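Appendix B. Chain record.
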Amino acid sequence: KASAEQYIKKEKRPCALFMLDIDDFKRINDTYGHQTGDNLIKKFAFILQKNCTENMIISRVGGDEFCVFIPNVSDKGALSALADGIFRDLDTNVNMNNDTKMAGISMGIAVIPENGKTFEELYSAADDALLEAKRRGKNTYHFAPITHNATKHEKMDRVHDLLRGRSTDSQILTVKFGEIQTLYHFARLLKEKGAAETHVLIISLENIQKESRAELFDNLMHGLIAGVKNLTTLAKNGNTHLVALVFDCLPEGMMKAVFDSIQKACGAEIAANLKIEMD
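Structure tokens predicted for this chain:
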């Protein structure tokens, strides 16, 4: 913990924390004996050491629970690759022939800056993500949802992870006005991959002067309609759930214009089933 805290305070660079534990460890102990449980923990620790590099910090939190601190994170894809490697080795080296599902693990992944600024916030987010992985059926990993402002590039990284099947997250994107094309690219990627998730798009005009927001509306809708058309077509075909649009700092009286424009471009049935909110 001390080394991780020092890195976060000194380097101020992206880093991550894995929280991992063995699924149903008590059942394994009760069924196969404590010696089997102890051997399983040793094998699990060996797999972590094999997959982690020297600059990563592996710690046993207690019992069958471990954490891995990963400094200098380049992107989410690298984290997914590390997690995939751990799961592959677990399947190969731990599962027994007589009970191939005996040694599943669950993993929660959190990242700075998306999930906080301190080690305590990172740890809490990773722990919550671990619980969510277990809630989703165990033997999987789950990225903590973004809780801090992220750049356009970071948001698209999460979309790519989702579409590659490396994350089970429902996607929430916050898009500033100047990044409205993100919606279009997001829709295009979904159309190519046919992802089946619930997607929420938050369009923020927070930094736009109030007197200018109405004037920007036509440009906003041009990009918005292109994305909504693609996404709602997918929803109609059953490939993805309908999108919810949440407008942050939208000018008063603009919501009806948004709805009317979507209805005109996409059809009344789609517009009626599309959730549109003003935050």
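Further analysis of this model is presented in Appendix C.
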